[in-house]
């Protein structure tokens, strides 16, 4: 039987995943971005108080099955965060609803994940190495595109230019087939962003975005807050990238002056242990934001997220101690863009006043 593999969305993760699977000779099935309909399905069939990312990704998996996927991939871990149990519970829910498919639940250990993947998908080792290499290089090109967009959007003269260029660049990366083609694209993408009319004399507000990783990286979950902030003159910095998350098992984004290891070190006096999510990173990067001269921090998290709710009072304390404004936003399926953007606008007004007064 022809293997058709589906996976839920999180930011631009699908570009590297699609490449990896296709290079292994397997058909990837990429569902549409999370929509009201897919999220409603997730809400209807999820435990009531489970976090929003579970509901949204359950809807993604259902859409992948309806598009012809016969194997679903997800990840597990021993974290106390419920993310580590999503896959098994979601797959059980879908099978109870009558869907038939093979489950591939990948361990956080890269060796175990490789073994389990090979057992289900049956590929040659050298072909796998080549596939990972191409997916990695393509993922780095996606990261470059995202960073260029973050650093261009606050300066654009015509609102929306950066977003249009970013979407075009991502589609070009997605279509690229070889390492040489991807590397050639990197220079072309830099040129595309340089062609955007900008005003570099502006002195934008700078905001660091921290919180639960899905809510920070998935634009449909955070109501496109990164684009909104950039188009309103804010230089926004998410605490990580989808590339670092995808390849964290090989230390991507872990070290360096702004790496995860340094952020966790900064957080340890306030929270000595990792609770399973990104709570230590939220604390560490808030401290880092102050040290690097950022104007404020926005903290995004699902309504029932245990690790981030534990981090929140610590973040409040740090906001007072380090005199850095903090806006903590709890998101779920009931969040409306009007209410969210009203809070963000008020926060930007506060930051602008502080920025102007020096």
TrEMBL record:
Origin, by domain of life? Bacteria
The chain's coiled-coil residues are: none
Which Gene3D superfamilies does the record cross-reference, listed alphabetically?
3.40.50.11900
What protein am I looking at? CoA protein activase
- Which source organism? candidate division WOR-3 bacterium 4484_18
């Amino acid at each position: 039987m022809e293997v058709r593999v589906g996976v839920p969305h999180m930011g631009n993760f699908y570009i590297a995943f699609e490449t990896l699977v296709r290079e292994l000779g397997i058909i990837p099935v990429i569902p549409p971005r999370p929509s009201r309909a897919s999220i409603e399905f997730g809400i209807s069939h999820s435990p009531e108080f489970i976090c929003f990312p579970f509901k949204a990704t359950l809807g993604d998996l259902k859409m992948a099955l309806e598009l012809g996927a016969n194997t679903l991939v997800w990840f597990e871990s021993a974290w106390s965060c419920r993310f580590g149990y999503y896959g098994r519970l979601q797959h059980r829910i879908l099978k109870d609803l009558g869907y038939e498919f093979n489950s591939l639940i990948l361990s956080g250990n890269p060796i175990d994940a490789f073994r389990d993947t090979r057992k289900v998908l049956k590929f040659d080792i050298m072909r796998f190495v080549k596939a990972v290499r191409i997916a990695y290089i393509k993922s780095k090109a996606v990261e470059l595109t995202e960073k260029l967009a973050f650093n261009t959007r606050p300066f654009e003269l015509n609102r929306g230019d950066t977003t249009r260029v970013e979407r075009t660049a991502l589609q070009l990366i997605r279509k690229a087939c070889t390492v040489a083609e991807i590397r050639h694209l990197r220079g072309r993408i830099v040129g595309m962003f340089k062609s955007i009319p900008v005003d570099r004399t502006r002195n934008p507000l700078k905001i660091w975005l921290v919180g639960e990783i899905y809510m920070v990286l998935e634009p449909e979950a955070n109501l496109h807050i990164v684009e909104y902030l950039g188009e309103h003159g804010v230089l926004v910095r998410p605490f990580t990238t989808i590339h670092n998350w995808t390849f964290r098992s090989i230390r991507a984004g872990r070290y360096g002056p702004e790496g995860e290891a340094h952020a966790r070190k900064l957080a340890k006096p306030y929270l000595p242990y990792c609770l399973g999510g990104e709570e230590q990173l939220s604390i560490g990067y808030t401290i880092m934001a102050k040290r690097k001269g950022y104007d404020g921090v926005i903290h995004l998290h699902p309504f029932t997220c245990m690790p981030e709710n534990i981090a929140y009072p610590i973040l409040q304390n740090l906001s007072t101690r380090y005199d850095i404004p903090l806006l903590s936003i709890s998101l779920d399926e009931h969040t409306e863009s009007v209410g969210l953007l009203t809070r963000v606008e008020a926060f930007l007004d506060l930051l602008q006043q502080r920025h102007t007064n020096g």
